[in-house]
Amino acid sequence: MTKLTVAGVNKLLKERKQGMTNDGQGLYFRITPSGGGGWIFRYRSAGKLRDMGLGSFPDVSLQSARMKAADARKLIAHGVDPLRERDLEREAEREAQRASAAKAVTFEILVGDYIKAHGGSWSEKWRKGWLSKMERFAFPSIGSLPASGIATEQVVEVLKPIWHSKPRTADEVRGQIEQVLDAAKARGLREGENPARWRGHLDNLLSRDAKKDARKRTHFAAMRWQALPALIAELQLLEILPSFAAQLLILTGARARMVGLARWDEFDLEARTWALSAERMKMRKEFVIPLADPVVELLSKIPSVADSPYLFPGRGKSGVMHANAVRNLLHALNHDDITRHGFRSTFRDWAAERTNYAREICEMALAHDERDQTEGAYSRTDFLEKRRGLMSDWASFAVSTSSDNVIQARLVGKRGMLEIES
How large is the average pLDDT for residues 156-179? Predict the structure, then answer.
């Protein structure tokens, strides 16, 4: 038999006396410290007393509260904890809301978000090229799909038309899709394996020969390693930013883009390391370059600009020295036949012909990790200390030729022009 009436509930509210009034069969009306009223269903589960809120009054009327309490008693009669059941229902509702929200975040939006998150250190040219590949090859097929709606079938649909005709571009597109979907998974917008993953996945569906073609490096014009010390001697006579950048490029084996965007806070001269974040690396894996003595000496010569974090600041929108400054310097020194990237080949040829360092050490010095997925999972080292010895030997060789009067005379007539171009 019930004990409460609507009038009685209103009276309790008017009196504002804190406590709980029993309506029978586990239903109570509670006056809160603030003077409000609400419904509580009290029951036992696994021997423990539990209180289940049914809503506040008058949003939940006396009749509605009794109906909710009756529903809870039915669940208990079937061995179901009503609080747990309600929690499961609410979680299902939240999951449905999350799924609905995730569907509204399309791949095209995810690409924009990825660029905003990671593109701060990219050059304008790199950013435009990155987005252009997505716009040309990915967006027509998967741009309007949510991350959860992109499966292996959709990725293959993007890649197949260009896998053989444009293998290098296709591989870059695949890698970018993989990065975007990894970021989406980290945001909880998708689950499961990445459908754009190559090893153990797409390599079973797409031609591996085309993949090898995609990975073939363009053969950049490179200087013979025997001639390198003479070039370093020439560069050491020019205390201008393009010369400093060229020397850092050569002595560390770094890529031109790594040097062009180098920041002072990446260098630890006490530890003699140059630490680059994953966003700064082509393979999106953080990398540490050991600094040999000649490199530390070189860094001490580079002037720092108070309002710039970069080693090689510039006046353009990027905030850094023009990307072609080093190339223009090499051309001015009558080295039109070599390229910035070619110095990495020069280093690799020297290492192969003049040292006994293991192949994996020499490749890792160029940030080339050739270990397969299984080997990489067990071998986490980046061979930093072994690379330190290699790079020290390389730098010592590179600076082994002292500048002489012939070289100095050759540069006197050009110095003014080089300083203007820098």
Answer: 92
- CATH number for the domain harbouring residue 147: 1.10.150.130
DSSP 183: H
For the cut 70, the answer to whether the pLDDT of residue 403 exceeds it is no
Asked if 327 contacts 257 with a C-beta cutoff of 8 angstroms, the reply is no
pLDDT of 409 reads 37
Q: Is 87 in the same domain as 156?
A: no
Supply the angle between the helices 293-301 and 241-252 in degrees, to the nearest 10: 160
For CA atoms 199, 204, 205, 207, the dihedral sign is: positive
Burial track 392-401 (b if 16+ CB lie within 10 A, e otherwise): bbbbebbbeb
Query: For residue 409, what are the CA distances in angstroms to 234, 237, 414?
Result: 11, 11, 10
**Cβ atoms of 386 and 361 closer than 8 Å:** yes
Residue 294 or 94, more confident: 294
Q: Which domain holds residue 118?
A: 107-215
pLDDT of residue 283: 66
- Give the CATH number for residue 398: 1.10.443
The answer to whether residue 119 sits within a structural domain is yes
Predicted confidence band at 295 (pLDDT cuts at 50, 70, 90)?
Answer: very high
SS3 category, 299:
helix
Whether 263 and 323 map to the same domain: the answer is yes
Task: Work out the mean pLDDT of the chain and round it to a whole number.
Answer: 84
Q: Is 337 exposed, middle or buried (0-12, 13-18, 19+ CB in 10 A)?
A: exposed
Assess whether 410 and 321 both reside in one domain.
yes
Does 59 score more than 50 pLDDT? yes
What is residue 378's DSSP assignment? H
Number of domains in the chain: 3
Report, as an integer, the average pLDDT of 124-151: 91
Residue that is last in its domain, among 72, 96, 120: 96
Would you say residue 347 lies in a domain? yes
Kindly calculate the radius of gyration of the chain based on its CA atoms and give it in whole angstroms: 34
Q: In the predicted model, is pLDDT for residue 272 greater than 50?
A: yes
